[in-house]
Design goal:
Elements (H helix, E strand, L loop, with lengths): L1 E11 L4 E11 L2 E12 L1 H15 L4 E7 L2 H16 L13 H11 L3 E6 L7 H19 L3 H13 L2
Parallel strand pairs: 1-4, 4-5
Antiparallel strand pairs: 1-2, 2-3
Helix pairs in contact: 1-3
Length: about 160
């Protein structure tokens, strides 16, 4: 099984607001950076999207060491998802799981691999995390530069109305 190291991060200007995600994948000497964004989202959704996209790049099952600065992602995937699945994607309080669509996608991607999830403190000088933060921020700026203020406001209003 190939060994891959992944770092990921999500960013949002406003929460909700325009967002970006990024991931860096390393296998031996090979390095791949991926990123993207959304005109209306939340920071948590971008953190999840980064993890989904990173694992989705892998074309075969791999042994993955995955670094995230998101306790939400790490705790969700290592502790909460199993219970949510048992409860029909409801929380312990019988409420719908927030971001269920992305949690389902992440669960599907993660089960294809042997993933060791590692949390790193964000903005603390960790090279992989700092690079992902920069790429995610660039993705936010790209979204903002390709949409007018009016378009961003309309997308945000749509996003908020969906709950």
């Amino acid at each position: 099984m190939k060994r891959v190291v992944i770092h990921s991060d999500g960013a949002c200007h406003g929460n909700p607001g325009p967002g970006g995600w990024a991931a860096i994948l390393r296998h031996g000497e090979h390095l791949l950076e991926v990123s993207g964004g959304s005109p209306a989202t939340t920071n948590n959704r971008m953190e999840l999207q980064a993890a989904i996209e990173a694992l989705g790049v892998l074309t075969e099952p791999c042994e993955v060491e995955f670094f995230t600065d998101s306790q939400y992602v790490k705790n969700g995937v290592t502790s909460w998802v199993a219970g949510w699945k048992r409860n029909g994607w409801k929380t312990a309080a019988k409420q719908p799981v927030k971001n269920e669509d992305l949690w389902r996608a992440l669960d599907a991607q993660a089960t294809r691999h042997r993933v060791t999830w590692r949390w790193v403190k964000g903005h603390a000088g960790h090279d992989g995390n700092e690079r992902c933060d920069a790429l995610a921020t660039q993705a936010v700026e790209k979204v903002k530069s390709t949409h007018t203020r009016q378009q961003l406001a309309e997308r945000l209003a749509e996003f908020v109305s969906l709950g």
